[in-house]
Design brief:
Radius of gyration: 18 Å
Distance between the termini: 32 Å
Structural class: alpha/beta
Largest sheet: 6 strands, mixed
Shape: globular
Strand content: 15-25%
Helix content: 25-40%
CATH superfamily of the largest domain: Periplasmic binding protein-like II
Number of domains: 2
CATH architecture of the largest domain: 3-Layer(aba) Sandwich
Strand order of the largest sheet: 2-1-3-10-4-11
Number of strands: 11
Length: about 240
């Protein structure tokens, strides 16, 4: 491969610990780092404008030759806090659910859990830019990322999707993983994998650099988000892909 390897990720708070090490590592000499919405990363991989991405896992089946190339990603073994259905009424009264346009994985997980775990039939609506303003009465909405953390205290009912998955299937959930769809140099992948781990040893520094009054980032980074994709995470990922396939 000639030229720099184009690597893409999202700029949510949950990626900061992974990007911290990457941006401070020698591996940056071999790559260009791009930031985009999670829903746009799959298209960029498919059309070849990037070589590797922190990809929402629901997009993996749509990409020929996709393979996970790192031990790190964005996962949870229970409450993830930043991916949930928000509502002002309990689940049995929800009639409509707005779907956040930023992430295919969260949308597919919400649809699956509503049908199979909560046994709830609803009308789905594509979210517009200001859809959070319309979440009231019997209309609920999937909100993800930093926006979700900001909304945790604004709604009477918050149905955490990672927790719902754990209750339903008994496994952890993987939201995103580093995925490539072409051969990349082994020495680059090894250095990249090691760089992912560096930020996890500098959480206090990352928290200080990203003031966020809405939620305790120490809790978020150590209790809600799990970055190492261990065997339980991989089992959960395989089960999810099987169920949406």
């Amino acid at each position: 491969m000639t030229g720099k390897i184009k690597v893409a990720a999202v700029s949510y708070l949950n990626t900061k610990p992974l990007l911290y090490g990457i941006e401070r590592s020698d591996v940056m000499n071999d790559m260009d780092l791009l930031l985009d919405y999670p829903s746009l990363l799959a298209k960029s991989l498919q059309d070849g404008s990037i070589d590797m991405a922190l990809l929402p896992v629901a997009a993996i089946p749509s990409i020929p030759n996709a393979r996970i190339v790192s031990d790190y990603g964005i996962a949870s073994d229970g409450n993830v806090a930043s991916v949930a259905i928000f509502s002002q009424v309990p689940m049995d009264q929800i009639e409509t659910v707005y779907l956040d346009y930023q992430s295919r994985t969260s949308v597919r997980l919400a649809q699956l859990l509503l049908e199979k775990h909560w046994n709830k039939k609803v009308e789905f609506k594509q979210a517009t830019e200001h859809y959070i303003d319309y979440i009231n009465g019997t209309s609920a909405g999937v909100i993800i990322g930093d926006r979700a953390l900001k909304q945790l205290h604004n709604f009477e009912y918050v149905y955490d999707l990672a927790k719902g998955w754990k209750e339903y299937i008994g496994l952890d959930f993987v939201f995103a993983a580093w995925v490539a769809n072409k051969e990349l140099p082994e020495n680059f992948l090894k250095a990249f994998n090691e760089a992912n781990a560096i930020g996890l040893q500098h959480l206090d520094e990352i928290i200080e650099a990203n003031p966020f009054p809405y939620y305790d980032l120490k809790k978020y980074y150590t209790e809600n988000i799990k970055y190492l994709l261990d065997e339980n995470k991989k089992q959960g990922l395989n089960k999810f892909l099987e169920m949406i396939g």
